[in-house]
Design a protein that fits this description.
The chain is built from 14 helices and nine strands. The protein is of the alpha+beta class.
Length: about 375
């Protein structure tokens, strides 16, 4: 048998019984297969040729860390992170992951002793990789399980365990601006009434599944988006674009200013730091002395916006553009862009986890 032309597809779709027997013997002896998957193991008897398509399994899948990192551009597209950024994330998350695994295995109601039960197919690093790929591409659990060589129920369990760890890691990257450490901005004369040092506040909406009950359905309906949505508020450091605060997720019908008040963001701002909002935050000055927003058009159809207000709002928008860029980075992760399939559960956890990934991107790619 010529192994130089042997391909994995032949093992599942062709070949006679004699050839498959040779391949099984070679794999059992430890020979490396000259194909992209390195090694192949079979979970079926050689005699059961009729069901070989069903029971053949690639041992080392292409979505494992050691294989995916050979292709940096593919790794970046799959995770949104360069390898050095992902490795740092794993180093930060693994201690908490191991502690959580220890508590899970030593829980009082566990029926097996320590070390009992099935061995996991993925180590901690690959479980973090699976969850980041899920956040980035948002495939169904069946598709993700196929790519990683595990079942869809295992994918669900892994995401449920790792997502809270990524959420906490994301919150650890959020720091409000320090007025004593950062220099003051040189503002144009038009914006002298706005704070020199500020966080920029905005919100975004994500489409969700239509609630079953009508009373609940009306609360989630956003007239702005013409669909049922959930809303999250972000605060961004004006100097760096890093996300410094994420609010709880609320129904899409909630007004921006109504969401800002209970979030407590303005009360937590350090002394000398203000907040900048868009036209959805009219009245923000009443909540904080250093808050500001664009000037609203005078009421009435026949009243035009004054020219000085047009110039002011344009200059104000140039200060606010940083939050739009950060939200754009955030929504490149399809778990926050596609329609939510989690029945509106753990949305805040996903936003915090992705915010942490975006902050890691900015920390490594933008010069200090």
């Amino acid at each position: 048998m010529d192994l130089s032309v042997w391909q994995p597809e032949v093992l599942t779709s062709g070949g006679n019984r004699h050839e498959i027997g040779k391949v099984v013997n070679l794999v059992h002896m430890g020979h490396d297969m000259p194909c992209p998957y390195e090694k192949i193991r079979f979970l079926f008897s050689v005699d059961n040729l009729q069901n070989r398509d069903k029971y053949a399994k690639l041992a080392d899948m292409i979505m494992r860390y050691h294989y995916l990192t050979r292709y940096p551009s593919v790794f970046l597209k799959m995770t949104g992170l360069h390898r050095v950024e992902f490795d740092q994330l794993v180093r930060d998350v693994l201690p908490a992951f191991e502690a959580a695994e220890g508590q899970r295995l030593q829980r009082p109601n566990r029926q097996r002793e320590m070390g009992g039960g099935r061995r996991t197919e993925l180590d901690g690093r690959n479980q973090v990789l699976l969850t980041v790929v899920w956040l980035r591409l948002y495939p169904t659990h069946e598709v993700l399980g196929y790519l990683f060589g595990i079942s869809d129920s295992t994918v669900s369990r892994i995401i449920a365990r790792v997502l809270p760890l990524l959420e906490q890691a994301g919150r650890d990257t959020m720091r409000l601006p320090d007025p004593g450490r950062k220099g003051r901005r040189s503002l144009p004369e038009l914006l002298q009434d706005t704070p020199e040092l500020a966080v920029v506040i905005d919100s975004f909406e994500q489409k969700v599944q239509r609630p079953k009950h009508k009373d609940e359905r009306d609360g989630w309906y956003s007239h702005k988006k013409r669909s049922h949505t959930t809303k999250s508020q972000l605060a961004v450091d004006e100097e760096t674009g890093r996300i410094v605060d994420v609010s709880a997720s609320v129904t899409g019908r909630t007004h921006d200013l109504t969401l800002l008040k209970p979030s407590g963001l303005l009360a937590r701002l350090p002394a000398g730091v203000g907040g900048l909002g868009d036209l959805g935050y009219q009245g923000i000055r009443d909540l904080h002395p250093l808050a500001a927003c664009p000037r609203k058009k005078p009421w009435g159809k026949d009243k035009a916006r004054p020219p000085e207000d047009v110039v002011y709002n344009r200059a104000f928008s140039q200060r606010r553009i940083v939050v739009e860029n950060s939200i754009n980075r955030l929504r490149r992760y399809q778990s926050l862009s596609q329609a939510d399939r989690q029945h509106r559960r753990q949305h805040e956890s996903r936003v915090c986890a992705v915010a942490g990934l975006v902050n890691r991107q900015l920390a490594h790619r933008i010069p200090a």
